[in-house]
What does this fold into?
Amino acid sequence: MKAVRIHQFGGPDVLQVEDMPMPEPGPEEVRIQVMAAGVNPVDWKIREGMRGMQLPLTMGADVAGVVDMVGPGVDMFHLGDRVFGRAMPEYGGYTEYTIAKANQVAFMPKSLDFVHAAAIPVAGITAWQALFDQAGLQAGQKVLIHGAAGGVGSFAVQFAKWKGATVYGTATGKHVDYVKSLGADVVIDYKTQRFEDVAHDMDMVLDTIGGDTFERSWGVLKPGGILVSLVHPIPEGEAEAHGVRAKIFRADVNSRELAEIARLIDEGRVKVEVTTVLPLTDARKAQEMSESGHAHGKIVLSVGEEQARKAA
It folds into this structure.
């Protein structure tokens, strides 16, 4: 089988398409014939060595495909089931076949094809857990989502709106209208407006940007509000000094929350935006696009023949 792998950390040029032996699932694991693989910012961060992963490794995590083999102890899934979820790190997602823990995949939304399903797992679960598991967002609260046009941000806008929150989002240029179309109540063009001049007394801020954006976000929170960051460490004592709470976290993909997201998608409450579909062999280009930071929606690699035909 083919897989996109790295043997050293570095730029996109370290990505190589290689032949690999077929993996075998262990207990509580399933083998998936990958039809499409999602591309996330964490992928190129791993490629550059930011996460300290062990080499060599196969890139990617998000996959959608067909269950090809089940390991001992798996009774939820059977051969031929269409599933989506997170591949185990040692097997990766940019590949024709991968292994996933059974508790990290779910049945695909019935209304989606493989490409759109592959765009969901990490970004969707990250948004879900940030809003609900970490911040406990409730109906009637106000949330500011930085990077609202991105993979995580676009899901977060829709989840928060579904929950009944008032949603503020930052974006710029053509992405402003896109974020409005997702249901945001207020969209702040960060190139022409300072978000702190518009957003006040927020119950929650979701920071997907870090840096100066993170630092300026303290002031828009109401007393007792919470700042959840995906990228910026929380300086000791700073949240307390502002009279608020703060967390940084990494998502933990699980079947239960994937299934809940799938239900919302099939009910038409959440849409999945895929802006670019590339073949597996164009993984370098896909990561370069992701690294540019200017794409909205998701980038997906088409792997299986069926999806290559649909994307044509």
Q: What stands out?
A: The first strand starts at residue 2 and ends at 6. Confidence is low (pLDDT under 50) at residues 306-312. The two ends are 23 Å apart (CA to CA).
